[in-house]
Request: fold
Amino acid sequence: MRSDKLRKPIVSTLASFIVALLAAPTLMAQSTPPDAPESSSSSASVLATSRFPVVFPSAVAAVNSSGTPAIAVSAALVNPQTSAPERPRRFFDKWNLALFTGSTALDSADFAVTRANLQNNGKELNPIVRMFGRSTAGLALNFAGEAAGTVGLSYFFHKTGHYKLERAVSMVNMGASGFAVGYSSSHR
Reply:
C-alpha cells in the first residue's frame, strides 16, 4: 500500500522529466551558437557538435624545464560544414501539381458516384457529407470544399517548412477518396 503511494509520484515525475528532456530544443541542438567565434588552426582536435567543445589533446609534446613531457592542449570552437542556404522551392511544382490533379480527379469521381448512389435511394455513410447531401449543389459544395481544404492545408505546411506533410495531405486525401469511390461503386 505504501509503495503504491510512492510509486505514482515517482512515475509521474520521471515521465514529466522525460517529456521535458525530449522537448528541450537546446538539448537537441547539433551546432554551435550563432555568436560563436570562427575557428582558428590549433594543435587540438575539437569535436563541435554542441555548444560545448570536446577537446582531444594533440600529439604535439613538449619537454618542460624539469625534463618531463607535457602535452599541449588548446580548444577552439569550429563551425560545422554548412552548405549554401537552400533556395525555397515553389509551391506549385510538378509534384504538387500532379498530386492536386489526382486529388481533384478522385474528389470529382467521389462526387459523381456519391450523387448517383443518393439518387438511387442510397444512403450516405459519412455524417459530415450527409448534412450537405440533400441537394446536388450542397454535395458539389462539400467536395469543392474538400479539394480547396486539401490545397489550403498543403500550403500551410509549405509555408511552415513541413514539405513532407505538404505532400502527405494530398496523398491521404487521394487514398480516402479512392477508397470511397471503390466502396460506393461496389455497393450500388
Q: What stands out?
A: The chain has five helices and four strands. The longest strand covers residues 45-47.
